[in-house]
Amino acid sequence: MEKILRDKKAIFLFVFPAFFVFVVIVLLPIVVSIYYSLLDWDGISKGIFIGLKNYKDLFIRNTDGFILAVRNSFILALLSVFIQLPISLFLALVLSREVKGEKFYRTVYFIPVILSTVVIGQLWMKIYNPDYGLLNFLLTKIGLQSLTNQWLGNPKTALMAVFVPIVWQYIGYHMLLMYTSAKSIPTDIYEAAKIDGATESQIAFKITIPLMKPMLKVCVTFAVIGSFKTFDLIYVLTNGGPLHASEVPSTLMYNMIFFRYRYGYGSAMAVFIVAEALIGTLIIQKLFANDDAN
Amino acid sequence: MGRFKKLLAIGVALLLVLSLGACSSSGTNTSSSSSSNNSSASNSSNSSGSGEKITLTYWNIYTSDPLKTKVKEMLDKWNQENPNIQIEQSITENDAYKTKIKAAIAANEAPDIIQSWCGGFSKPFVDAGKILALDDYLNDGTKDQVLPGAFDNITYDGKIYGLTYSGQASVLFVNKDIFSKYNVQVPTTFNDLINAIKTFKSNGVIPFALGNKDEWPGMWYYDLIAVREGGVQLCRDALNGKASFEDPAFVRAAQKLQEMVDAGAFAPGFMGLSRDEATAQFSQGNVAMYFGGNFDGAAFQKEGSNVKGKVDAYRFPAIEDGKGDPTEYIGGGANALLVNANTKHKDEAVKAAKYLAKQLSNAQYVTAGGLPSWKYDDVDPSQVDPLAVQIMNNIVEGAKDSVAAWDLYLEGNDAQTHKDLVAQLFAKQITPEEYAKQMQEKINGSK
What we know:
The complex is a heterodimer.
Chain A: H1 2-6, H2 8-36, E1 39-40, E2 48-49, H3 53-60, H4 66-95, H5 102-114, H6 117-128, H7 134-141, H8 158-169, H9 171-183, H10 187-195, H11 200-211, H12 213-229, H13 232-237, H14 249-258, H15 263-293
Antiparallel strand pairs in A: 1-2
Helix pairs in contact in A: 2-15, 4-8, 4-9, 4-12, 5-9, 9-12, 12-15, 14-15
Chain B: H1 2-25, E1 54-60, H2 67-81, E2 85-91, H3 94-106, E3 113-117, H4 123-127, H5 142-145, E4 155-156, E5 159-160, E6 163-175, H6 176-181, H7 190-202, E7 206-208, H8 216-230, H9 232-239, H10 248-262, H11 275-284, E8 287-293, H12 297-300, E9 311-314, E10 329-339, H13 346-366, E11 371-372, H14 386-396, E12 402-403, H15 406-409, H16 412-426, H17 432-444
Parallel strand pairs in B: 1-2, 1-3, 7-8, 10-12
Antiparallel strand pairs in B: 3-10, 4-5, 6-8, 6-9, 6-10, 6-11
C-alpha cells in the first residue's frame, strides 16, 4: 500500500479523473462566465464586447437594484449564522447526549431538508395567505388581530416572511452535521467533567463546543455561502417581489437572463456571487484560524 | 446479514447508474410523452415523399386537461393518416417552458414545430435567424382560412413567421348573483365602475379579484385603460417608438388606475397573490368582478367552481372623455406555432404545423382556453363553452381594433420594465407623471 501511495504516477492516475471533471464542470464555466460578463449579449444572437460596463451598471450606476439584492443576501447570512446555527447547535447538543427518541427526533428534524423546495414554498404560501392562512388565523384567535398582515404581498414584510422558511428548512441539515461531530467526542471526557462537578451547560460550552470547532467552521461556511447563493425558495414564494422587496442576487440574475435577455449582464452578477462566496470562505477561514491560535 | 447487505448495496448502486443513464437522455424533470427531447429532426433520410418515415418533434405547454387530451387526439389522428410523417410531442409547464424553449433555440436544439407567443417573445428568435419565414407557404389559401388580423402579431419586418392559433381578449367577468343581490347594474362607464366598486366595498364584498405577484395581471388593467384613453393606434405608435409615453392619455390612464386602487377595488394582499389564487378566489363566488383575459374564463367554468354558469362577459366600461373607441380591446393573436429554420423537413413541418394550428384553434375555442384565430364554421356551437361564445359575441365581434397586451408586444427587457412600472402604480409608489416619464425614458429613450 505504501508503495502505491509513494508512486507519483499512481497518485496522478487516481486523482486525475476527478480533477478533470472538476476543471471541466466547475472551473471552465466560471472562466467562460467571466468572458460573457464582458459582453452585451442576449443569449441568442452575437455578443458585443463592452468591457467592464456591466460591472459599472451593477455597482456604480445601480440601475437594477443589485446593491439592495446583495444587502438582502447579507441579511440572510446574518440570520443563518446567528439564529439558524444556534438552534441547530442546541438541538445537536441535546440529541447527542443520549436522550430518549434520539433516532426519531434526528429523522424528524431532518425532513424539511429533504422536502422539495417547491413543496415547502407552497406550504408556506398557504400559511402566509392573508385570507385563509394559518398565521393570520392563529394571530386572530389569540387576539393579536392588529398584527395580521399580507406577509408575502406587503413589501415591508415580504423579506422577513421569505427568510423564515429558508432558515427553517436547513436547521436539520446543520443539526445533523453538528450532531455527528458532537457524537465523536469520547465520553470519558464527560465522565471526568462530571466527577469534577461540571453542570450540563458548562460541559456544553467549555468542552463540547470547542471540540466541535472544525465542524462549526464547516457549518458557518455552508450557511454563509448558501445565503449568498439562495434562490429556490425566494423564487417560489415571491420571485423577488413584491416590487423587488425580497430580491436577492440570484433571482435578479435569473430574471435578467431569462426574461430580459441580458445574458452578459446576468453573467456579471453570477461572477460577483462566485467572487463573494470565495472571499467569504477565506474570511471565515481566517476568523476560525485566529480562534484556534488562542 | 452480511450477504444481504452486499446485495442491497449492489442493487442501490445499479439503480443509481441506471437513473444516471435516464438523466442524460431527458433534459428536464417535467412530464413528457416523447422519448427524446433534445434531438430536433428525424434520424432517417431527408428526401421528402420518398416513402421513408420522418419524425417531426413538437413542443407545447398543455400539461393538463382539457387541452392535454385534445392535443393527443389531434396528434393520434395525424399520425394515423400520415404514416410517413409522424409527430412526436414533448410537454412542459408554461413558465418552465418559456425558459426551456429560449435555451433550446439558443443551443440549436429546438424542435421542428415550436409553440410560442406572438409579439416580443418570438422576436429575438426571428432576429437571430432561427425561425422559418412562412410567406411562401401561405399562398395556397391558408390566408382565407384564418380570421382577419390573425397574423398581425406574428409578422416581423413585413414577413410572417408563425401560424397563430389562438387569440386573447380582455374581458370584464361579472358574477351575476352578486350584482343582482346588491342591485348593481353592470357598469358601462368608468364613473359607474367606481360607484359599483364603492357599493360593493361598503357591503363588505371584494370588488375585484386580482393576483399581481407576476405583475402581468395588473398590467392588463392599465393597458386597457390606456386603450380607452388614447385608442389602439396611439398605443401601438408609442410601443413602436413613434409616439411618446408621456402623452396625456397615458398619464390619465395611470391616474384612473390609481383611482380604482383608492376606491378599494382590490383586496389587500393582492400584490403577493398569484393569478391562479385570484381566479380561485373568484371561483369561490364571493367576489363581484374579475378583469383579465378570456383564458381565465376556463377556470370559472371548471367542474367544482362555485360560479360555473353564473358569470357573464362584458367589455370594460367606456371612458367618457377618452379618445379610444369603446369596442377596442387588449388581445389579438397570442399563441402561434413556429417552424424551426433549421428543420430538415421544411415542407412536411409546415404542412403539419398548419394542421395543428387549425385543430388547436378549434380546441382552444371549445374549451374556453383561447379565442380562435382560424375560421370556426366547422365547430358545433353547442360544443362550445357558453362563456367563450359570450366573449366572442360581446367583445370580439364588431370590435374596431385590438392591440396585444403590452408585455407580449414589447421585447423581454422593455416588457419587464413596463410591468415593474405598472406594479409601482398599483402600490402607489410613483405618481402617474413619474410613471409616464420613466416609461418614455426606459422604453423609447434608447430608440
